[in-house]
Amino acid sequence: MDLEKTYQSHVLVLPYPSQGHINPLLQFAKRLASKGLKATIATTRYTQSAISDPLVRVEPISDGFDDCGFAQAQSEELFLESFKSNGSRTLTQLIKKHQTTNDPITCVVYDSFLPWALDVAKKNGILGAPFFTNSAAVTAIFSRIHGGRLKLPVRLEDCPVVVPGVPPLNLEDLPSFLYAPESYPAYLRMKLNQFSNLVKADWIFCNTFHSLESEVLKGLLEQWPAKLIGPMVPSAYLDGRIEGDTGYGASLWNPLNDDGCTKWLKTKPKNSVVYVSFGSMVSLTQQEMEEIAWGLQESGFNFIWVVKDSERHKLSKGFLDLTTQNPEKGMIVSWCNQLEMLAHDSVGCFMTHCGWNSTLEGLSLGVPMVGVPKWADQLANAKYITDVWRVGVRVKVDCEAGMIVKREEVVLCLNEVMNEGERGLEIRKNARKWKELAKEAISEDGGSDKAIDDFVMSLRDECKRQD
């Protein structure tokens, strides 16, 4: 679409200040900027220095814990309340600051976890749009809870849970808040509050694409007209239309280098490496770390495992000695560029916690997956990976051993995905299919690209009306 640049709008994008939320919203800001809009990320003072991209300006607001963010609060309840009060006040100040410039803010696109941002936008006479960072299926599930059509807690006898367009869900497939609502009450309230003022929103964005979740979207789009704009993965790995867009442009972990991951991968045959990463928030028990470690070792496959420095002590000296003595077989690293790893020909499998960003990255780059979900939406995502998109397998946990995955299960799953058996071949075929569909969605005239263009044109029309 040939977008005229006569009327330029200014969009302020506000993510929840964690890595998994900053990434997709920052990527959306880059997409908007690449189409001629002015895009600014508003983030907490603690995370401001971690974000840098040539297309997007970064401005600070306050969550009340400017020195250390959530770690300073040490309580979900306290952090969320403080972010609401301090964030509302400083977001208002930021909007007012821009009102007297040549580029006043015309729309706030905010993380759906922060519905108070819509109230701020409306009080200041500007447009507002939530951005849902979960899958459409998970969004539909929580929407039903908010609407009173699904009661908590969900018990074993209530299963399978049936949500229109979603495959029947057993207890192990449900977001963990549903059967244990007392586990993270502040987060559960946050998940449900996403829907509290949706009727006031001017647009609604979902980080998915139509062919990926077509069945659930039939019902969801009848409730509210969401724009599907995903997958929000850096352009270099999909359509290539944003020059130099090889990474998200944000890292809260201050990586110094990639520990030689890419150099190491170049020495490995095609599809021979298992890439293992459980995201920034999952913390495994020492027993489970040990089981996964020895499962990787016993599988015989090459592997790269990203283990945060704070988790490394959970690995036995014997296992660490083996990787030190035989670095040709396996690497333990504290950080590496996940997108580069998944895009590399040597990587044949992604062992993942099934967070939505990692799931979209695996799908977009066509990498088969072994799911090790732990909490929240990861369990439902794993269900889709295994049974709907059929791009991977999910480990079975050992209930008697304390709901952990045992080494024998790790070996079994890796063999199923990595080897040339019937299931492995089907998984690789499906992975290639979804890679093409993801690329098609965000490429020029794809469904997600058209949705973004529609939003851009709507904002420009609004500017014309105001002139």
TrEMBL record:
Q: Does the keyword Plastid apply?
A: no
Q: What is its EC number?
A: 2.4.1.-
**Keyword field:** Glycosyltransferase, Transferase
Q: Entry's Pfam families?
A: UDPGT
Checking InterPro entries in the record gives: UDP_glucos_trans (IPR002213), UDP_glycos_trans_CS (IPR035595)
Q: Does the keyword Nuclease apply?
A: no
In Gene Ontology terms, what is one molecular function of this protein?
Answer: quercetin 7-O-glucosyltransferase activity
Instruction: Kindly report, in one word, the top-level EC class recorded for this enzyme.
Output: transferase
- Alphabetical list of CDD domains matching this protein: GT1_Gtf-like
The entry's family comment says: Belongs to the UDP-glycosyltransferase family.
The protein's matches in PANTHER family, at most eight in alphabetical order, are given as: GLUCOSYL/GLUCURONOSYL TRANSFERASES, UDP-GLYCOSYLTRANSFERASE 74B1
Name of the protein this chain belongs to = Glycosyltransferase
Protein source organism: Mikania micrantha
Organism ancestry? Eukaryota, Viridiplantae, Streptophyta, Embryophyta, Tracheophyta
